[in-house]
Amino acid sequence: MSHRPITEDDLHGYVDRVLEPERQAQVAAYLNDHPEVAKRVAAFTDQREGLRAALAPIAEEPLPAELNLKRIIEQRARRPSFVRWAAAALVLLSIGGIGGWSMRGALQGSPGGLAALGQEAAASYSVYAPDRVRPVEVRASDSAELVQWVSDRLHRPVKAPDLTTSGYRLMGGRIVASSHGPAAMFMYDDDHGSRIVVLIRAMSSADQNAPMTPQSQGDVGGFAWADDGLGYSLMGRAAPESLRPIADEVRRQSRPI
Amino acid sequence: MQDMLVQVEPLIPALRRYARSLVRDRATADDLVQDCLERAVSHWHQRRDGSVRAWLFTILHNLAISQFRQSAARGSHVPIDESNEDDFSEAAAQDQKLMYRDVLNKLARLPKDQQAVLLLVGVEDLSYADAAKVLGVPVGTVMSRLSRARERLQQELEGPSNGEASNIVSIRSARE
Q: What is the pTM of this model?
């Protein structure tokens, strides 16, 4: 019976038991006839078994926590979501910085919305009340035109409160800018020349109705409230206790009877 | 990721064994395996067809090799004979310990590429073809390297120091 010559590779294959059964038998037969080679092969087999036995205990050891594959996978999965979270946080921070000014009324509820309104009214007061040349754009003599103008711009009927019973006469008014679009500003003065302004504008959906609260900015103070989607703020340099009845009068007039 | 868990998790003990056999330090070896597993998780979908076992051993082997290069460059190589040999054989019976220690110490004297082929083929049961993939060499090179490694290890085991491992350790330590 003739077969392919036995190679060095066959001997290692024999040691590692990876030969086909037929070849394995041929090598065994060859080793039977060649004791010197068989001695070498036996030594290699002993090496192999020795290494396996010596190293086997390592694979029996319990795995340390850092080699917990499930945890590694979970940590990996968490990393991208952290990136997403960080991106979302950045967006939110941007909104907080840029859009937050206009959003803060909605986020904070009534006081925030009224505070913004009060600040806008105070700003209008500070800009226009000291103006000796043209404190108002449309004079009270053209009040019908004024009311039409501001009602058009605010998309709802707006009346200029009549504060004569409180000692204040309507000087006139104008449209001013606000964080919620156009605002109607009415200006009044009394016999001493002291002026007050009433600012009316739309409120955010969160502040459709809000009780009257005192507002102030610097030495300008007054009150703000919201009724049925419109915000009102009355501002002046007079003492708050003297302004409060006037504010009440404005509110009374703005409400449907 | 479930298929990954099923295919990779059972191989972790063998990966640990290969890493520790090569680098001999338990903490360093486990660090390598952890690194290997993290890479496997992040590259799971980029693996090619073929044995997951060979793929994992390839990652681990390359990490171990670059670890050797780095520690050689730093000059912080821990002499083999000073490493903690109990890391290998603590679970073995006491009378076997010396024998195991001897074969492992002799193995450690071989060049790393010879150690690697002995471990991959003889201990981790990789096919010659998979061992060739892991080592990045043709199968023929695996066979000739395996042959040289077994001859060399046999010379070490039959050397004059056989059974006198402790003397060799002290001589080598004094010299290094």
A: 0.54
Task: Indicate the residue of A43, A48, A70 with minimum beta-carbon distance to B122.
Answer: A48
Closest residue of chain B to A11, computed from CA coordinates: B147
Interface of B with A in 108-137 (CB under 8 A): 118-119, 121-123, 127-128
Q: Where are the domains of chain A?
A: 8-60, 110-254
Quick check: ipTM above 0.95?
A: no
Cβ proximity of A189 and A168 under 8 Å: yes
All domains of chain B in start order, with CATH: 2-175 (1.20.140.160)
Judged by CB atoms closer than 8 Å, whether chains meet at B9 and A16 is answered as no
Say how far apart CA A159 and CA A4 lie, in whole Å: 113
Q: The dihedral of CA B20, B23, B24, B30: what is its sign?
A: negative
Compute chain B's Rg from CA coordinates.
17
Quick one: B31 exposed, middle or buried, by C-beta within 10 A (0-12, 13-18, 19+)?
middle
Partners of residue A40 in chain B, C-beta under 8 Å? 154
Q: How confident is the model at residue A34 (pLDDT cuts 50, 70, 90)?
A: very high
User: A18 to chain B: nearest residue by CA?
Assistant: B127
Nearest residue, CB atoms, A69 vs list B37, B96, B121: B37
Where helices occur in A34-99 by DSSP H, the ranges are 35-60, 69-94
Q: Is the CB of B5 inside 8 Å of chain A's CB atoms?
A: yes
Q: Does B173 touch chain A (CB under 8 A)?
A: no
Question: Cβ A51–B90 below 8 Å, yes or no?
Answer: no
Which residues, in sequence order, are CB contacts of A179 under 8 Å at separation 6+? A101, A102, A116, A120
Closest Cα partner for A111 from A224, A221, A201? A224
pLDDT tens digit sequence for B27-52:
999 999 999 999 999 888 888 778 89
Query: What CATH number belongs to A110-254?
Result: 3.40.1000
CB B58 within 8 A of CB B133: yes
**For residue A61, which residues of chain B lie inside 8 Å, CB to CB?**
13, 16, 91
Determine the longest span between alpha carbons in chain B, in angstroms: 53
Question: What does the alpha-carbon distance between residue A17 and residue A14 come to, in Å, rounded to a whole number?
Answer: 5
Could you say which DSSP state residue B81 is in? Answer: G
B37: contact with A, CB 8 A cutoff: yes
